């Protein structure tokens, strides 16, 4: 029997916590964002559809991007218990310099189009947080302006080798003179990928004003106000404007770039050099043999060859082959700090984030980029504490299983028979009829820990299916 009473004002008052309303709408908006997905939702509301879609979209059917994000969601973590990690150290050394977190900001083109503060917001936020910022060849702030905005932080430069080689060589020299310490040579863009959203939106640089864009502008007046009242959108390097992004890229990129270009760039560049867009083990091995300082496993955020391999899946194999000799980095699909922790556990030295940064930028300019870093930092710290590790160096492959969703089709009947799941006698606590993936080759550390837990790790299934780098 419940005893009831009349509500007592003093008790009700105790329950009521009246918070002072924050009159700063940007701060209010950003503090309500708890995840990168939340930042994306705000970004979408505030940015014209064509600019948002240019950022959010990928190539063709956007399968690569979806698969890359799915692969991170398909991570299973294995925490150790009763291992206190009250304080965790998220700092790391990368390419002879330090970073407060195991990720940096990826190079993105046309950034001021998404939000007028553009690269300067990215560079200053990165500098304040103690992480590297990468400026794109197609950046909308100059090399020198980025350097002035982030004078003591680490600035990296991303290079496209263009048809007119002299433009690329000149940019390389300027970046070196401005003290950028690392050059990312992007190699996955011999031609532009088919960004269908841009074609459907009639997206062009600069944006064309049409009835559709005017209708789209009405609920987003601040974007247009910023766009029309700040200096004209210009590229740090390219003088040509006009046409869709694809047309612009095609005009600038050169389908004939090759290892010969790498040799020339290495001669010109005094700092560290990383190859961005490596997508198989043999290429990684060849590049390391040529003496590059780093490899960035990336499919350009799914914006180039759709259905390209998921970089996160490629990671353990590349680490096994060349991880001791060179810095291995990864990008594409990172939406959560836990994705970065999983990458480090599987041997990545560093990660880059592209869209996560741009969602933050579109959601709130510089403050939005700060919020993006804060969200990822919080997720990294919490994941490490829950795993029971105090530093990034303590993360090991055994902490992570990559669960397999799509696996290669076996090449022969024998392989098919070998890889078919076999019924096993149920272990204690396992349901009858449970099957486990079998392996035909020696186990790696990651696969061993995973298979003992009854999961089907990506590596294990791929190897037993003969699915190496095809
Ligand atoms: C809007 C946008 C523009 C990009 N521009 C460039 C670029 O100019 N050069 C380059 O090497 N990569 C570029 N990228 C690819 C990023 O550097 C990075 O590889 C990718 O965004 C990582 O995937 P994520 O967006 O899922 O984090 C761009 C990506 C986006 C989303």
From TrEMBL:
Annotated region Disordered: the residues are: 406-470
- Record's compositionally biased regions (Basic and acidic residues): 424-433
As cofactor, the record names:
FMN
SUPFAM superfamilies annotated for this entry? FMN-linked oxidoreductases (SSF51395)
- Start-end of Low complexity biased regions: 445-456
Q: Name one Pfam family in it.
A: FMN_dh
Query: Which residues does the UniProt record annotate as the domain FMN hydroxy acid dehydrogenase?
Result: 28-405
Keywords in alphabetical order, please. Flavoprotein, FMN, Oxidoreductase
Family designation: Belongs to the FMN-dependent alpha-hydroxy acid dehydrogenase family.
Name under which the protein is recorded: Quinone-dependent L-lactate dehydrogenase
Organism name: Georgenia halophila
The organism's lineage is: Bacteria, Bacillati, Actinomycetota, Actinomycetes, Micrococcales
């Amino acid at each position: 029997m419940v005893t009831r009473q009349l509500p007592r004002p003093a008790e009700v008052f105790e329950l009521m916590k009246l918070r002072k309303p924050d009159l700063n709408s940007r701060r209010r908006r950003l503090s309500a964002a708890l995840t990168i997905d939340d930042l994306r939702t705000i970004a979408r509301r505030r940015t014209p559809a064509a600019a948002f879609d240019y950022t959010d979209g990928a190539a063709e059917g956007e399968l690569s991007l979806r698969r890359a994000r799915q692969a991170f969601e398909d991570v299973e973590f294995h925490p150790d218990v009763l291992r206190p990690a009250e304080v965790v150290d998220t700092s790391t050394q990368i390419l002879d310099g330090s970073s407060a977190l195991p990720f940096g900001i990826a190079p993105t083109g046309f950034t001021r189009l998404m939000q007028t503060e553009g690269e300067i917001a990215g560079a200053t936020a990165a500098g304040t947080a103690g992480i590297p910022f990468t400026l794109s060849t197609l950046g909308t702030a100059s090399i020198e302006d980025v350097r002035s905005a982030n004078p003591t932080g680490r600035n990296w430069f991303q290079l496209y080798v263009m048809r007119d080689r002299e433009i690329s060589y000149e940019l390389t020299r300027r970046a070196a003179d401005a003290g950028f310490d690392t050059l990312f040579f992007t190699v996955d863009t011999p031609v532009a990928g088919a960004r269908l959203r841009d074609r459907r939106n009639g997206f062009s640089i600069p944006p064309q004003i049409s009835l559709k864009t005017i209708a789209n502008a009405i609920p987003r007046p601040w974007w247009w106000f910023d766009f029309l009242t700040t200096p004209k959108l210009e590229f740090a390097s390219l003088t040509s404007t006009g046409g869709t992004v694809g047309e612009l890229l095609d005009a600038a990129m050169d389908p004939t770039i090759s290892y010969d270009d790498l040799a020339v760039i290495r001669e010109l560049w005094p700092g560290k050099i990383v190859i961005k867009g490596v997508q198989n083990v043999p290429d990684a091995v060849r590049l390391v043999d040529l003496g590059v300082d780093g490899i960035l496993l990336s499919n350009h955020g799914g914006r180039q060859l759709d259905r390209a391999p998921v970089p996160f899946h490629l990671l353990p194999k590349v680490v096994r082959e060349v991880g001791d000799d060179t810095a291995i980095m990864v990008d594409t699909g990172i939406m959560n700090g836990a994705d970065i922790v999983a990458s480090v556990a599987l041997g990545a030295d560093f990660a880059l984030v592209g869209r996560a940064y741009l969602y933050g930028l579109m959601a709130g300019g510089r403050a939005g980029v700060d919020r993006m870093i804060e969200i990822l930092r919080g997720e990294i710290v919490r994941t490490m504490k829950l795993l029971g590790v105090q530093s990034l160096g303590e993360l090991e492959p055994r902490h992570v299983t990559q669960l397999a969703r799509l696996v290669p089709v076996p090449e022969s009947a024998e392989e098919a028979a070998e890889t078919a799941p076999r019924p096993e006698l149920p272990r204690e606590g396992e349901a009858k009829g449970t099957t486990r993936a079998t392996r035909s080759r020696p186990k790696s550390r990651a696969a061993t820990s995973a298979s003992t837990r009854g999961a089907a790790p990506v590596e294990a299934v791929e190897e037993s299916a003969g699915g190496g780098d095809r």
